[in-house]
Design goal:
The chain starts with 12 loop residues before the first strand and ends with a helix. The protein has helices at about 20-40, 100-115, 130-135, 180-190, and strands spanning about 15-20, 55-65, 70-80, 85-90, 120-125, 140-145, 150-155, 170-175. It has an eight-stranded mixed beta sheet, with helices on both faces. It has a single domain (about 15-190), classed as Aminopeptidase, CATH 3.40.630. The chain is globular and about 55 Å long. It is an alpha+beta fold and about 190 residues long.
């Protein structure tokens, strides 16, 4: 018992924000390479493309204490045409996929921050295995396509569920999704 290995530490709080520091951007790019090149094999060596030259990178930062420590999730957004925004390269580190808050929080900041910048339509190519998550977050499938040899859904966010968020550089705090957090939130809401 005393010599059993410890499970890796997984933070319960995450800062969701635009990548504003060099280490945040390099951490996001490293995570994308690990997920899309290493794990999924969608790209050889690097997933960098021309969208990276115009995109805004969003990160989920974990922390051991109050100081952000590492990038555990990322997504990028860009305006393809006036009022038409796209999200892409959503990735969450393997140890953090069961947290239940990171992917949804990255999507929320992506769409809400674009909405604050004049977005009238927000689209994404979503890998088919993730389409249900997006549907639960008020997205609808427009069509099914194959992209990079994998089935994807072309999906559109319902902007009515994503109010404009005007402070993406500082972002917001997301908590690990656990029943205890749900109870605290509902009790706090009842008291208000």
């Amino acid at each position: 018992m005393i010599f059993e290995p410890f499970k890796p530490f997984v933070s319960s709080e995450f800062k969701i924000k635009y990548a504003t520091d060099a280490w945040e951007l390099s951490g996001a790019l490293a995570l994308r390479r690990a997920v899309f090149c290493g794990e999924q094999g969608l790209f050889q060596g690097d997933d960098h493309d021309e969208v990276d030259d115009v995109a805004t990178t969003i990160v989920a930062l974990s922390s051991f204490t109050i100081v952000a420590e590492s990038v555990v999730g990322t997504v990028r957004i860009h305006e393809q045409a006036q009022g038409l925004w796209r999200g892409s390269r959503l990735a969450v580190a393997p140890n953090y996929r069961r947290v239940g808050a990171i992917g949804a929080s990255l999507i929320r900041l992506a769409v809400s921050s674009a909405h604050a910048l004049g977005c009238r339509r927000f689209l994404a190519h979503v890998q088919s295995q993730n389409a249900l998550l997006f549907q639960r977050l008020h997205w609808r499938t427009l069509e099914e396509v194959e992209l990079h040899g994998r089935p994807h859904h072309v999906m559109e966010a319902d902007l009515g569920f994503y109010p404009p968020f005007r402070a993406p550089e500082t972002g917001f705090l997301a908590l690990r999704h656990e029943p205890a957090n749900d109870r605290r939130c509902s009790e706090r809401d009842k008291a208000a």
